[in-house]
Amino acid sequence: MGRLTLVDGRVLDYQVRQSARAKYMRMNLSADKGLVVTQPVGVGEQQLRDWIHGKLDWITDNLPKVERYTAPLMDAPALPEYLEFPVTGERFRLVYTPTSRHNIAADIGDDGTLTLSGAVGNPEHCRYVLREWTKNYARYHLGQMLQQLATQTGLGYVSYSVKGQETRWGSCSTRGNINLNYKLVLLPVEWVRYTLIHELCHTVEMNHSTRFWALVAKFAPDYKAIHAQMKGAMQYLPDWTKGG
Ligand SMILES: [Zn+2]
């Protein structure tokens, strides 16, 4: 037995039969037996799965035959309807369009919609695409903000990168490389500004000494309140941001 996720989000269970006489893999869809895959002896599990996945278009086209063997995917957490980024003030309405392609493409329309099209029936895959898309968005916009703040404060950095850390908003290496969490783009602008200033100040003071905080206070006088609010804020981020 195996289970296949179809492009529209339904699952289809299938049977696997080994045959000593079979030379090639083959599949059969019928109203009385559902999807049955026959394989020669010695075919590995991964090879079998890849082969079945390659037949997804054919299965989808012939689905009416086996409609009663399909079931909706259970317990799938809801996908977001909007993406909102306080750092830019931009808000994108999300549209999920199922097609027969096996991957998912993300495209911005002129009307401010972000369309995910392809195998959108797989919510785990959708969330992965949303994370990757947001990472790219964050890489550009956080980079611009960092550059502006570096100019304003006179604090330099060598390079920056954007990652999906689970526990920290940012970090700074002794060489002056700043790592920023892409999830910052989901937070209030003042919080983002404080985080970037915090990391820029580390290019001068690689510690959390009194001198360090005095430097932070020079550029972000209200840093104490923000610093306190940001502790524990990670757990309030939307579900789709969780995972690699
Ligand atoms: Zn720090």
Automatic annotation (TrEMBL):
Q: Which residues form the YgjP-like metallopeptidase domain?
A: 23-231
Q: Which species?
A: Thiothrix subterranea
Quote the Pfam families the UniProt record gives: YgjP-like
Task: List its EC numbers.
Answer: 3.4.-.-
Task: List the InterPro entries hit by this protein, alphabetically.
Answer: UTP_pyrophosphatase-like, YgjP-like_metallopeptidase
Q: What is this protein called?
A: SprT family zinc-dependent metalloprotease
Q: Coiled-coil ranges per the record?
A: none
Ordered alphabetically, the record's keywords are: Hydrolase, Metalloprotease, Protease
PANTHER family hit by this protein: UNCHARACTERIZED PROTEIN YGJP, UTP PYROPHOSPHATASE
Gene Ontology terms, MF aspect: metallopeptidase activity
Q: What is the lineage of its organism?
A: Bacteria, Pseudomonadati, Pseudomonadota, Gammaproteobacteria, Thiotrichales
Q: Could you confirm whether the keyword Transcription regulation appears in this record?
A: no
